[in-house]
Input
Amino acid sequence: MSHYLTLLKTEYIKRKSSYWLPVWIVAGIVLLVLIISITAMVAHWDEIEIGMINMAFDYEDIQDGVMFGTYGSMILVVFVFSIFLLITSQSSLSKEKELGCELFYRCQPVNIWVCTAAKYLMHVFAGAVFLLGIGLILGLIMAIVLASTMGGFYLGSAIVGSLLGVVLYLKIALVFGSLLFLFSSIFKNNAFLKGAIFLGLIDLVFFMIEEITRNTINMPSIYEGLVALLGNLNVDADLGLGYVLADYRLLIALVFAGACYAGATLIYKHKTIEA
Amino acid sequence: MEHYINVKNLTKNYKNVTALQNVDLDIPKGRIIGLMGKNGAGKSTLLKCILGLLRYEGEISMFDKSIREWKHELYGRVAFIPDVSGLDPRLTVKQTIDFTATVNDSWNWDKSERLFAQSDLPCDQKVATLSKGMKTKLYLLLTLSKDVDVLLLDEPTLGLDIVFRKEFYDLLLGEFYDESKTVIISTHQVAEVENILQDVIFIDKGSVLVNESVDALKDRWHIYEVPQDQEETLMQYNPKVVTKTLGHVRALVEGKVDISDSKKIIPSLAEIFIALTQGN
Output
């Protein structure tokens, strides 16, 4: 067990900045918004009217509003974290070769599947832990703000909104993070760019086949297929944790992620180290 | 004699280049072996094939089991120090020690604590900020702290100053080697390791030229110095390297020479190595 924890801990240490940088960026954005808000508040104090406590809202509408509001705020945070996810996972299996320390790790008595699993978990999914932390703080802030403006403490709804953001991130990680993890085993560097070009070329070939056959053959679109794997994302009345999780596309995404991990490990395992 | 490593008919090709060709070797237990060759002779490729890090043709077995059948457990019995200080620059010295200690069941805590306490390695400093000598020293101490049977060193002291090189080999002999362990040192700096080697393998253009004990090799090859008028007689013994000095001719000859006024000198490994590889 200590082997596994050490591998996870070492992966965290190696990429520490890529976990904390998005947190500081989000904190910076929040701070900036806060400064702008306070400045605007001070400048237009007389015109501001806070106090919707006396307005009549349906209890369920407020709950939905808090959930959607928190989820909407989380989208920005998810966007920042997703960019860092792409940066981190695109070099998961190639960074050590680039740094010249691949032999050191390859010559340790550690099962290669366990080794790549630690990288996969830490590079693709560990950001979700930090995101969850931010989500909980954000949910609490939303609940406090709404309690002071509308009355009632809707922490549960706010937390559900935050969790929806985390689930969205996990789905992006599951599909695009896993795909980049696979690309990191194939390409020595710039796996994101090279992988995107590779998929783009496939899409182009498919498009040309459709054009040549005058659309008598329907070819799939790689990018559309990948986005479809993300599943239910629509912000509508049905949005809820059950709605986004109970989706057959999630199952397909899990199978896709598993195939990417297994494929990446097999390629990494069989790749020779040039003398 | 028990052998730790057996290599049979090993061939390794890189696209159009043959790095190793029909190599046969038996590496015995409890010996310090020098693997010598010029740059690009195939030394690193041979070591990486033995470690199972490259695909190859032929058969290599270690501890009586084919390398192709060995999995990660092999690295619990074999340690490797590559030619560049290939430690992770993102970790500190302490983090590197902790990582290696935890993943290696053969880690000897008492020994490692003693070795690292004696060393002047700064534990909280990142590996990236260490000098090349310090990185190599850290790599060696990590390796010495493991109880392995075979140690493979690929040009371990390349680019280090003479003080570090001496410290390196002193540590290696003092802390690692005993009669149950085998050390293979790949180098082209022959003079540096001459005194610690028991056996020697000369490799050139992917083929093994010599594989025997240092004593046997030095018994077989001699440098003879004769007056210049005896040069023709000396040439009849098919000498390998001939140099002319003031009034004398020097040559490396296999076997014994019967020339009056000749002076016999025991050659260094470097001289034998140069003589044998020059002809190729």
